[in-house]
């Protein structure tokens, strides 16, 4: 490379890279380091290095095995998985509905709008619907039915999560559906495939890039949420995100909070790394 | 799936997406302070917002953060996108991976990581305190990732022969950028900046961890109000935010259609 292009490379790439190193890589390393420290009497961190935070996370306390935090992590995975399942159930056919419609642009706008609407407002709407004297119970009362006690509850948390993350799947999925080569389906029919086999072998594989990207974009934030469970679960629905928030907030045990954060971070970045290796640069672009 | 079933499913999904938003918008015009029964149309809740001076301060904070962080992110992100799409260099893959971290990592992880960084810096550099400044840095961090990736995909669709032609005609790289590249990609840059701006205005989780006591933004205020209970004032603030979002979105659509 010539000297001039070295200069240009530096001028364009350096500020952004320095920013990322300072505010993305360095904080990650600090979390890792802090997860091996201990809480000091002032609520700050101090040495010597210890594995106690991870032992506590795994439930290996002095009083025997108590998998409290592993159970919470499991609950977060369950929320992520169930949310993703329902989002795919609602969103997968919807992407085809948009692609086949005459009003594509309008429908896309209608999906993007809730996606851009403040996420607290979207969660808040479900409190208004589910609360004791809310919209749902007013409706049930009009129909002469018994009221439901859905707020606060796990049901409300699940509905809120599906609602919040649905657009995250539809948008990347639609990008794949739009590009489908339908002649492959015709070829499958010509070869004697039925509707189900034709879809499964000729259409579904073409939607996979968008589907996988969408599933990641739903599963990961659902796994790490603390706001949805905090607001719709009324303080009783505890997920890994709530544990982290409490340790860095009220409980002020930043060392243990860092260990919990690093566990979540390792799971997500590990998944991202595997995805990056399989999908390449083009596949990564599906995530934005 | 038959076509009719597909349409039925589509309408059901649209209803699911819009019913909650509609509930809030309608209730913001309801004169009843408690409950959801309709007691007549009113603009009272909006009028009350006009005299809620602390709320105006929160809106101002949100705007200060959004404008400053978007300005930083648009410049830094556009430069990075140019560099990443022009040059192949050692470590390029690592920079790309690092760019996706703020996009995919759960907000709470990014929030507490930055809080830890700022607290650490505060211990060693006196004078750094949690406040609007730290929120601006935090927002710019995730915005840079989005701006870079959006502009980079725009640059990928650019015909390289145009720039080569300009180079053959003797244009310097600086002139080449302003005379050829920028006019072609500016809709992408503008769309990326608007996206970054809305992401900043909307952000709650990362702000929650990186803002000090004096740096309350609008979403922080909404969160603490919602924790205290449902009120018509929150309906009104939310409806205004939905209106602003809708306008911004239509703006983005207009800009991106030019090309």
Q: Please, could you describe this protein's structure?
A:
The complex is a heterodimer of chains A (288) and B (259). Chain A is mainly α. Chain A has one domain: MetI-like fold (Orthogonal Bundle). Helix content of chain A is 75%, strand content 3%. Chain A has a two-stranded antiparallel ribbon. In chain A, α2 crosses α12 (254-285), α3 (68-100) packs across α9 (195-224) and α5 packs across α7 (154-178). Chain B is built from eleven helices and no strands. Chain B is globular and about 70 Å long. Chain B has two domains: 1-42, no CATH class; 44-257, MetI-like fold (Orthogonal Bundle), CATH 1.10.3720. Chain B has 259 residues and is mainly α. Chain B has helices at 3-27, 44-50, 53-86, 92-104, 107-124, 132-156, 160-168, 173-202, 205-210, 218-228, 232-257. The chains are: A mainly alpha (288), B mainly alpha (259). At the A-B interface, α1, α3, α4, α5 and α7 of A face α1, α3, α4, α5 and α6 of B.
């Amino acid at each position: 490379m010539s000297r001039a292009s070295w200069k240009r490379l530096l001028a364009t790439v350096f500020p952004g890279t320095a920013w990322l190193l300072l505010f993305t890589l360095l904080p990650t390393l600090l979390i890792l380091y802090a997860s091996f420290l201990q809480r000091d009497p002032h609520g700050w961190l101090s040495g010597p290095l210890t594995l106690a935070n991870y032992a506590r996370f795994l439930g290996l306390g002095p009083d025997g095995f108590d998998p409290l935090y592993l159970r919470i992590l499991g609950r977060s995975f369950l929320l992520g998985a169930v949310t993703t399942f329902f989002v795919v159930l609602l969103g997968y056919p919807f992407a085809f509905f948009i692609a086949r419609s005459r009003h594509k642009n309008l429908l896309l706008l209608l999906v993007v709008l809730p996606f851009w609407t403040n996420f607290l407002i979207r969660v808040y709407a479900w409190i208004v619907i589910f609360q004791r004297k809310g919209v749902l119970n007013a409706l049930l009362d009009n129909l002469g039915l018994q009221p439901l006690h859905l707020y606060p509850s796990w049901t409300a948390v699940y509905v809120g999560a599906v609602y919040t993350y649905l657009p995250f799947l539809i948008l990347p999925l639609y990008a794949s559906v739009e590009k489908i080569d339908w002649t492959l389906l015709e070829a499958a029919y010509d070869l004697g495939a039925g509707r189900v086999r034709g879809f499964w072998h000729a259409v579904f594989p073409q939607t996979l890039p968008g589907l996988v990207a969408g599933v990641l974009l739903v599963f990961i934030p659902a796994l790490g949420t603390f706001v949805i469970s905090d607001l719709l679960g009324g303080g009783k629905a505890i997920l890994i995100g709530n544990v982290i928030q409490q340790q860095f907030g009220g409980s002020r045990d930043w060392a243990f909070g860092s260990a919990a954060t690093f566990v979540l971070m390792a799971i997500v970045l590990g998944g991202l790394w595997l995805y990056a290796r399989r999908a390449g640069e083009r596949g990564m672009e599906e995530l934005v | 799936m038959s076509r009719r079933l597909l349409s039925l499913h589509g309408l059901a999904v649209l209803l699911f997406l819009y019913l909650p938003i509609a509930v809030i918008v309608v209730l913001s015009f309801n004169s009843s302070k408690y409950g959801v029964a309709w007691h007549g149309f009113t603009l009272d809740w909006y009028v009350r917002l006009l005299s809620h001076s602390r709320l105006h301060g929160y809106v101002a904070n949100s705007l200060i953060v959004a404008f400053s962080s978007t300005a930083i992110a648009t410049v830094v992100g556009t430069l990075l996108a140019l560099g990443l799409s022009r040059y192949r260099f050692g470590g390029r893959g690592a920079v790309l991976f690092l760019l996706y971290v703020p996009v995919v990592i759960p907000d709470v992880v990014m929030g507490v990581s930055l809080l830890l960084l700022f607290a650490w810096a505060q211990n060693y550099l006196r004078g750094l305190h949690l406040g609007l400044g730290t929120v601006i840095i935090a927002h710019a961090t995730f915005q840079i990732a989005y701006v870079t990736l959006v502009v980079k995909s725009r640059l990928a669709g650019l015909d390289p022969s145009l720039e080569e032609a300009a180079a053959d005609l003797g244009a310097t790289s600086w002139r080449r950028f302003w005379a050829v590249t920028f006019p072609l990609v500016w809709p992408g840059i503008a769309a990326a900046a608007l996206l970054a701006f809305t992401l900043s205005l909307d952000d709650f989780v990362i702000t929650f961890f990186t803002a000090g006591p004096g740096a309350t933004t609008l979403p922080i205020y909404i969160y603490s109000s919602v924790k205290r209970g449902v009120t018509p004032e929150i309906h009104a603030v939310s409806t205004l935010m939905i209106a602003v979002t809708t306008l911004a979105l239509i703006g983005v659509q207009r800009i991106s259609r030019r090309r």
